[in-house]
Structures are given as structure tokens and as C-alpha cells.
Design brief:
CATH topology of the largest domain: Peroxisomal Thiolase, Chain A, domain 1
Strand order of the largest sheet: 1-7-6-4-5
Distance between the termini: 20 Å
Structural class: alpha/beta
Largest sheet: 5 strands, mixed
Bound molecules: oxa(dethia)-CoA
Radius of gyration: 19 Å
Number of helices: 11
CATH class of the largest domain: Alpha Beta
Order of helices and strands: EEHHEHEHEHEHEEEHEHEHHHEE
Length: 328
Amino acid sequence: MDQGKSVILGLGSYVPENIVDNQALSKKVDTSDEWIRSRTGIKERRFARADESTSDLALVAAQKAIQESGISNDLIDLVIVATITPDMAFPSTACQLQHKLGLGKVASFDLEAACSGFLYALDVADAMLASGRYQNALVVGAEKMSSIMDWEDRTTCVLFGDGAGAAVLSQKGEGPSLIGFRCGSDGANPSLLYQPAGGSRSPASAETIENREHYLQMNGREIFKSAVRVMEMATRELLKDHGIGPYEVDHYIPHQANVRIVESLANRLEVPLEKFFCNLEKHGNTSAASIPLALDEAFRAGIFKPGQLGLLVAFGAGLTWSATLVRF
Ligand code: UT7
């Protein structure tokens, strides 16, 4: 049994100030507010300034989470940042964040599982805390998706946004408990959603730039179908481990990619859509930041009552998928 013991001591999130609505996008690319809303549910998103990097977004979210946790910076001994848009290929964004927060010289590393990254990071942090070798973990999902969006590809550039969300986890203290985890992957078709160049397989060159291969590329229809399938699978497997039926979960916090994906998932699980928290209309798809951003907003809106069950579920490039069960 994958029972965890970690509790969430504090949550925090941050989105950049610059709001870009669908109308504004339609002046930049051949699209319309009607198309974006009806196909995705997205109305607006935030984009970071040119001089703001992923670690800057992570910093504000982390500061809020640490403040809410009530523990001091010097007690944090583990930093994990889930991201596909790191400040640079290396060193890690987690190291940048460790320094910007003025933490001790603690273990810090990035985790790359695309949009499932934050839930993967919760699983990893929980296991590291359970080992007894770490006491308090800062887990962040942060993305500057605008840095890898292709403004010549209307099928992708209307979907994403920038933001960050953070959680402080500990095995001691009061807060929502993480009681179960399920992560999976299938690397058979990486090109369904990927950034083709800039890695060791295709290092940056004049040709890769010419071919726009440093931007995100996606087969939207195939990703849509896979997303619904793997999120249903991860949910059912995790709930089965705990002897819980889908209807017994009080709140679902799904990855915020497309409201139609959420509707299909709700249908397949035979759970009313009202149980699914959605804020994608305001933020678009913020990849690894999507779940912690939604979790923080839902938490602040007071929708979780003590004792209720929550299920966080995500899918992403890889493909990867992950589900986490929370007792509030
Ligand atoms: O975190 C994981 C990230 N990815 C996702 O979650 C994406 C999953 N996929 C999706 O959300 C949907 O597949 C999309 C929103 C990307 C696309 O929706 P769709 O209903 O699958 O549309 P489509 O790709 O089948 O395209 C329908 C039409 C096409 O025109 P034709 O061929 O029917 O004439 C597209 O060229 O819509 C056209 N189109 C657009 N029109 C206006 C594609 N993008 C746009 C656009 N504005 N931005």
C-alpha cells in the first residue's frame, strides 16, 4: 500500500500581472475568442515579463507557501521544482530558488514530468520525508510556457499560460494529508507533445532555429484522447488501492488543460462535473503549475471541508500521468 504520511503545512501560488484575453490573442494570430472558448474553455491567461524567469514565479509562490506553513526558512531541507521551462538547461531552477529564498545549503533538484510534474514531485517528496532523512520539503510547480510557445502555430499558442504554485510538506504538524499516490508513464510516442530541439538528440543549430524546433509542438487530438484515458486509469487504480469509489471523492482537482477533457473524464468516472474544480478559464494550461495553482485557489475559496477527500489528477508529455489522494 502506498500510504503516505506527509501533510501540507502551507500552500501558495502566483501568476504574473499581465493578463492577455482571447480578444487580444486574435489580433496576434488567426483565431477567435469564440473558437478558443468553445474548444477549450479558456478566456484569458497570464504572461510573464521578458525579465521574469520561472524561478522568479516560483519564488513568489514559495514565499507565500512558506509563510502560511508557519515554519522558518532554515527548517526547509529539501527543494523540488517541477518544470519543463527551467531558467536554463542547467543548473536547476530549484538551485536558483534555493538561493533566491536564502535557504540553507539544502538538497535541491528539478523534476521533469511535464504537466504531471507537481504530482510526481509530491510522491517523491513524500517518500524522501518518510525515509526520515529530510524533515520539511518545499515542492513547486512553475512554468514560463510563453518562453516555448510558437506564435506562428495557432493550434498551440492559444492554450498555455505562465504561473507557479507551491506546497510545504512535512511529516509533522497539521494540514491536509497526502494519503495515496499513483504515477505512470508511456514513452512510446514522444512526438505527440514535445520540444524537438535543444537537447542532446538535436542540439541547437541555425537549422533547428530556422525550423522552429525550440518551440512546443503537439498533436492535440491524440493528446486529448490519451489524456482522458490515462487520467481515468490513474484515478481508478489509485481509488481501487484505497477501496474508494469515484463518487466518494468530494473534490477532483484535474490538470487544467481543456474543459472538454475535464467533462469527458467526469462522464467516464460517472461523477457530477460540479465535483471538478476548474480555473483554466483564467489561466489557460500552466503545465506543472496547473495543479498547485488550482489547489491553492480552491483552498483559499474555502471549498474543502475538514475530513473531505480530494483527488488530484494530471497527464502530460511523455506521456506521464499521476494521481494523488488527499484527506483535507
Ligand atoms: O497539458 C497537455 C497539453 N495539451 C492538451 O491538453 C491538448 C489536448 N487537446 C486539445 O485540447 C484539443 O485537441 C485542441 C484544443 C488542441 C484542439 O481542439 P480540437 O477540437 O481537437 O480541434 P482540431 O485540432 O480538430 O481542429 C479543428 C479546426 C481545424 O480546422 P479544420 O481542419 O477543421 O478546417 C484547425 O485548423 O480548428 C482549427 N484550429 C483553429 N481555429 C481557430 C486549430 N487551432 C485554432 C485556433 N483558432 N487557435
